[in-house]
Each structure stands twice: as C-alpha cells, then as structure tokens.
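JOB MANIFEST
job_type = single_chain_structure
chain_count = 1
residues = 221
[input]
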Amino acid sequence: MAIVYEGPSRLNKRPIVGIITSGSKNLKTGAQDQLWILDASESPASAVASGSDVSVCGLCRHRRSLAATTGADPCYVLLFRAPRSVWEAYKRGSYAGRTLQPAGSLRLGAYGDPAALPARVVARLVKRWGEHGSTGFTHQWRTATHLRRYCMASVDTLTEQREAARRGWRTFRVGDAPADGEISCPAAKESGRRTTCNRCGLCNGAASPDDRRKHITINAH
C-alpha cells in the first residue's frame, strides 16, 4: 500500500489523495493492484453527503448526489467498506513512507476517476506497471482527452457510446446486449467469468487512433 499522489484535484482544485493497494479478492478483477482516489479532507461517505465527492468523481451521473436528478442508478461502490478503510488508514498515517511494487495489473480507479489526477501522475503509473498492464475508466471523456491512451470512456447509452467512439475513445458501456462493434465483458457474470480483468486487459484504452479492438459492454451491477 502506498500513496502515489497528494495535491489538488484537476476537477476542482480540492485536496485529494491517490493510494494504491494490492491483494484484491474481487472475483471479477482478480488480483489487480487497486488505485483509490479519495477526498483528502472528508471521509468518502461525508464527501458524498456534502457534495465534495465532485473532487474525485466529477460529473459522473452515478454520483449519489446527482443520481436522483440524472435518473441513473447510484454508484455501486460500497463506501463503508474498502474506501472507508483505505481513507481511515491514510488519516492514521499508515501509508506514510511506503512503496509498492507491482503485483498484478493496475486498476486505475477502484474508486474515483483518474481524470482527477494530474496527467503526469497517470502516465507515470502506467509506465511503472509496464508489462503488468493496466485498466481504466473515466466518465470525464469529453474533457480528459489525455486519458484516451489508458482508459475506456464510461458510457451509459448507445448515443453516448457512438459520440465517444467518434471522438477516438474505446468505450465501456453499462447496459443491455452488445451492439455492433461491442462485445460482452469476458470477466462478467453473463460471460461465465471466462477470465479476470487482471488477465484480460482489454479495458486499457485506445493504443492509437488506429486501434480497432472491440468496445466493451456489461450488464448493470
């Protein structure tokens, strides 16, 4: 476990922290190293209640404070579990001075959007994880164009999917059956969990403007 960033959010300048943990037991992701992007001043639950979670989640329509107005399902992340534990350990100083060696691929955003981090930090992390690989997702795809190389555009409708694809993104859509150009997530329940995110690595953005790999879709969870 290690702190990889402390400083202002690129989304609203509020202090945030980026922390990486290893040893995930998530059945879908497998043994990925996990990046947690958290408000540095308020606990995850308090930040949601006050609206300060915009510093790490931006304009994601699944933010609990926005879901009621956007009609979206609230974020599925259980704040009282891992996010709270990681934040509390950070406030206790448990991660101070620690370094972390890559153990699996890196999940850019177990909680929080990588667009909240400076571009140089994301690039450095992807480079450090090197052959281990990384996966990532952003709801800020209309503005965070520097993440196209590393992240999938998180979209909720086919209209958004088509717009993001036109802008050069590979997409990850939560919804129904795959449309043209999409495939079901190989690590999802509906695919029979043929693999894990740690082994698959498809959700690593668009390697180049000529990247013709399929877009990914998954059932709501």
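[summary]
The longest strand covers residues 2-8.
Residues 2-218 form one domain.
exit_status = 0
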